[in-house]
Specification:
The complex is a heterodimer of chains A (about 290) and B (about 375).
Chain A: H1 7-16, H2 23-35, E1 39-43, H3 49-59, E2 64-68, H4 75-78, E3 80-82, H5 84-94, H6 100-107, E4 113-115, H7 117-123, E5 131-135, H8 142-154, E6 156-159, E7 163-166, E8 172-177, H9 185-190, E9 192-196, H10 201-211, H11 217-232, H12 242-255, H13 262-268, H14 276-284
Chain B: H1 4-19, H2 26-38, H3 44-55, H4 59-75, H5 90-114, H6 130-146, E1 150-158, E2 162-163, H7 165-172, E3 184-191, E4 193-199, H8 208-219, E5 225-230, E6 234-236, H9 238-256, H10 266-277, E7 285-290, H11 299-312, E8 315-319, H12 333-338, E9 344-346, H13 349-352, H14 354-361
Parallel strand pairs in B: 4-5, 4-7, 7-8, 8-9
Antiparallel strand pairs in B: 1-3, 2-3, 5-6
The chains are: A alpha/beta (about 290), B alpha/beta (about 375).
C-alpha cells in the first residue's frame, strides 16, 4: 500500500478507519512515511494527535508500539532492562551445575531481556514497519529528550552484554506534545512538524457523523454549534477538544435527547467542561 | 527531477525565514526539496503546506512563514537566478542550498551590526563578556540546584522506592552471598524548571544592561528555563534570546514591548502569564520575578495574580534591585501586595556573583524547606 500512496488516498483510507484528516495532516503523515522522518505533532489536548498513530498502525496493518512519557522516565524504562529477579533465581538454580562463565552467558541472554517500547520497535518482525508512538514527549525531562535524539538518528541500541541491535525496518515514528514544556530544537530539527488545533465546524460535523452515526444531523449541528461557541470563550483554562465533543454526543444519544435544552445541557455539561472554575465561568456568561 | 523555480523558492523561503530569526537549517531545506519529489502540488495551498511542514518547527513561527510565503507569492515568479545554478541535479541542489545559507548568515550578521535601533542606539548594549557568562552560568546553576524541586537522574538510599540491586548484592557479600535484606533507592531532588519574568519598564531603566545580559545567560541555560519580559504587556523571549544574542534581541523586544512606556502593570502581566502559560508551570517550577515593584495597575489584580501564581508553582522568588541597599524595606505598593506570596526576596547581587548569591541563598541565610512535589489537585481558587 505504501508504493502507490498519495495524500488524497491517505485521506480516504483514514476516513475508512473513522478518522477525518484534513489536507495538512494527510500531507504530514504522507511525507513522514515517504521521507522516513519522525513526525512531531503539537496541539491542544483532545484534538486527535494520538489517534493519528493508532489509525496509521491499523492502516499499515502493523503493530502500534506506544511509549507514554512521564516526568522522570529514564532510558531503562524506555529501552530495556535486565530481568533481575529471574536472573537471581537462575543463578541459584545453576550454581551447582555450571561454571561461572556458563552462568554469566546464560543470564545475559535475550531470554532475560525485558523489552521496553523502543527496543520492541527495533526488534519488531513483520511485513510492515511498526508504528512507534512517543506520546506526550513534553512530560519527560530534557535528559530523556537528549537520549531520544540519539535513538531517532541511528535507530540502533547498544546493550553492553549483547552488542548493538539495529532496526530491521525503520519504524514509523509519531511524537506528540501538549506544549506543557517547549520541546528542544534538536528534536524539532529531526522531525517534520505539524500543529493541530480545534477543527472547523464542517470538519467537526463530519467527525460526528462518522463516529456517532446514531446522532441526528439536526442535533449534531446543535452540538457542534455549542462546542464551537464554547471554544470562543478565552477565559477557559481547558477548552473542549474533539474527544470532549464525542463524549458529549455519545452522552446525548445514550440519554435519548432530541434537542439541547437547558436541563439536558446542565446535566451533561461535565462531559465538556472538566474544571470547577471553568464551569463557573460558563455559567456566569449565561451560556448554560 | 524538479524544475529550478521550486528549488529557488525553497532556498528563498529559507533565507527569509532565517532573517526573521526562525531556525531553519540545511536539513530543513533539503527535506523541503525532497518532499517536492513526492508530492503532486496542484494548488498554491499544497505548496504552502509542504514547505511549512518541512521548514517550520514551531507554532510561533507559523505566522512568520505565512507572511513570507504570501509576500513571495505576490511577487509571483522570482527574479532571474544566478547563471551558474542552471544545472538541475541533486548535488547541485545541495550545493545551492548550502550557499544560500552562508550568504544568509552574512546578511544576518550585517543586520545585527547595522540595524537602525530607535532606543538601543543611544545606549551601547555590550555583548556579555566571557567572564560574565561564566560567572552567570555558575550562579544560575547554583540557583537551580538550591531551588530544586524535581527528582534528577541520580539516586540516593531510601527506605522505599526502587530496589537497589547493586547495594543489595554488595551487602549480601557479608552474609556469604545470601540476600537477607533488599535495599532501596529513590531519585535525588536536584532539578527545577525555572521561569524568569523580567520587568523592562521605565523604572528599571538603570539596570537594562544587566537585565539583558542575565536574560541571555538564563535563556541559554537549558530548555527547562523560560524567559519572559513585561512592561505594559507580556512577551516570551526565550527562543529570541537563544538565537539572536542580547543585542539584536533587545532591539526586537523593544519593538514588541513598550519598554519605555509609562506605567507598569505587573498584575495584568502576571495574570496574562497565568492565563496563557499555566500549562508550562507546575509544582516543580520556580518562578523568578525581577522587578522593583513599581506598579501603576490595580493592586487587587496583582494580589489575585500572585495568589494563583503561588498556588500553581513550587516557589516564587522576587528579585528587587533595591534590596541590595542596606535598610531596604519593601514599601512600594506592588511589593507590599506581593510580599505574602513570595518565598525569597533577593537583591540583584544574587544574580551577579556567587558571593552575592550566597548572601541571599546561602545555606545559613534562609532555610529553604523543600515542599514535596505533589500531584494532587490544587485547592480551588476562592
Amino acid at each position: 500500500m505504501l508504493e502507490n500512496l498519495t495524500p488524497e488516498i491517505l485521506v480516504k483510507e483514514m476516513e475508512k478507519e473513522l478518522y477525518v484528516a484534513d489536507e495538512p495532516l494527510a500531507l504530514a503523515v504522507y511525507l513522514a512515511l515517504k521521507l522516513e522522518k519522525p513526525l512531531l505533532i503539537e496541539g491542544e489536548p483532545g484534538c486527535g494527535k494520538t489517534e493519528v498513530a493508532k489509525v496509521l498502525a491499523r492502516l499499515l496493518n502493523t503493530e502500534l508500539i506506544r511509549l507514554q512519557c512521564y516526568e522522570g522516565i529514564t532510558a531503562s524504562q524506555a529501552l530495556y532492562e535486565w530481568d533481575y529477579p529471574r536472573q537471581l533465581i537462575n543463578i541459584r538454580l545453576l550454581e551447582d551445575k555450571k561454571s561461572v562463565d556458563e552462568i554469566t552467558e546464560e543470564i545475559f541472554s535475550e531470554k532475560f531481556l525485558l523489552k521496553r517500547p523502543l527496543l520492541a520497535a527495533l526488534l519488531y518482525e513483520g511485513p510492515n514497519p511498526p508504528v512507534l508512538l512517543i506520546d506526550e514527549i513534553d512530560r519527560s525531562d530534557e535528559e530523556f529528550e537528549g537520549f531520544l535524539l540519539e535513538f531517532l538518528a541511528e535507530f540502533q541500541v547498544t546493550i553492553p552484554e549483547l552488542g548493538t541491535i539495529r532496526a530491521k525496518k525503520k519504524p514509523v515514528v509519531i511524537i506528540t506534545s501538549n506544549r506543557t514544556r517547549e520541546v528542544g530544537d534538536g528534536l524539532r530539527r529531526r522531525c517534520l512538524y505539524l500543529y493541530v488545533t480545534y477543527p472547523s465546524p464542517e470538519k467537526e460535523m463530519k467527525i460526528l457523523s462518522l463516529k456517532v452515526p446514531q446522532l441526528s444531523p439536526k442535533l449534531a449541528a446543535e452540538v457542534v454549534n455549542f462546542v464551537q461557541r464554547l471554544r470562543q470563550v478565552g477565559e477557559l483554562a481547558k477548552k473542549p477538544g474533539i474527544s470532549e465533543t464525542l463524549d458529549w454526543a455519545n452522552a446525548l444519544t445514550v440519554l435519548g435527547a432530541t434537542e439541547i435544552n437547558p436541563s439536558i445541557l446542565s446535566s451533561t455539561l461535565t462531559c465538556l467542561i472538566k474544571n470547577e472554575d471553568d464551569l463557573r465561568i460558563v455559567r456566569d456568561l449565561g451560556l448554560v | 527531477m524538479l524544475e529550478q523555480p521550486y528549488l529557488f523558492l525553497v532556498t528563498e523561503v529559507a533565507r527569509r525565514l532565517r532573517l526573521e530569526g526562525v531556525k531553519c537549517g540545511t536539513a530543513e531545506t533539503i527535506d523541503a526539496y525532497r518532499a517536492g519529489e513526492f508530492v503532486q502540488m496542484r494548488t498554491v495551498q499544497d505548496l504552502k503546506n509542504v514547505l511549512r511542514l518541512c521548514m517550520v518547527k514551531r507554532l510561533e513561527d507559523y505566522e512568520i512563514f505565512d507572511k513570507i510565503f504570501d509576500e513571495l507569492e505576490k511577487q509571483k515568479r522570482p527574479q532571474e537566478q544566478p547563471k551558474n545554478e542552471t544545472q538541475g541535479d541533486k548535488a547541485q541542489a545541495v550545493k545551492t542550498v548550502e550557499r544560500g545559507e552562508s550568504s544568509a548568515d552574512k546578511r544576518k550578521e550585517m543586520t545585527v551590526y547595522y540595524s537602525p535601533v530607535e532606543v538601543f542606539m543611544k545606549r551601547e548594549l555590550p555583548t556579555p563578556t566571557l567572564a560574565f557568562m561564566r560567572e552567570s552560568k555558575r550562579v544560575m546553576k547554583r540557583l537551580r540546584r538550591r531551588l530544586a524541586l524535581l527528582p534528577g537522574r541520580r539516586y540516593t538510599r531510601s527506605a522505599k522506592g526502587y530496589v537497589d540491586f547493586r547495594e543489595t548484592i554488595r551487602t549480601s557479600l557479608r552474609t556469604h552471598g545470601e540476600i537477607l535484606r533488599l535495599l532501596h533507592m529513590k531519585r535525588k531532588v536536584t532539578r527545577c524548571k525555572l521561569v524568569a519574568i523580567f520587568d523592562v519598564s521605565g523604572s528599571m531603566d538603570t539596570y537594562t544592561e544587566f537585565l539583558m545580559q542575565s536574560m541571555y545567560a538564563l535563556a541559554r541555560q537549558s530548555v527547562a528555563v523560560e524567559v519572559f519580559v513585561f512592561s505594559t504587556r507580556l512577551l516570551k523571549v526565550s527562543s529570541l534570546l537563544k538565537y539572536f544574542g542580547p543585542k539584536k534581541a533587545a532591539e526586537l523586544i523593544s519593538r514588541e514591548v513598550n519598554i519605555w512606556g509609562s506605567g507598569t502593570r505587573i498584575g495584568n502581566c502576571l495574570a496574562t502569564f497565568i492565563d496563557k502559560y499555566r500549562g508550562i508551570v507546575g509544582k516543580g517550577t520556580v518562578v523568578m520575578i525581577v522587578s522593583d515593584g513599581w506598579d501603576t495597575g490595580d493592586p487587587e489584580v496583582l494580589d489575585r495574580a500572585m495568589r494563583s501564581m503561588k498556588e500553581l508553582v513550587g516557589r516564587v522568588i522576587w528579585i528587587n534591585p533595591h534590596a541590595d541597599k542596606p535598610g531596604f524595606k519593601p514599601r512600594t505598593i506592588g511589593m507590599e501586595t506581593a510580599m505574602p506570596y513570595i518565598d525569597v526576596l533577593a537583591g540583584m547581587n544574587a544574580l551577579k556573583s556567587l558571593k552575592g548569591f550566597k548572601t541571599y541563598f546561602g545555606a545559613g541565610v534562609q532555610p529553604m524547606g523543600r515542599r514535596p512535589v505533589s500531584r494532587r489537585a490544587r485547592p480551588a481558587l476562592p
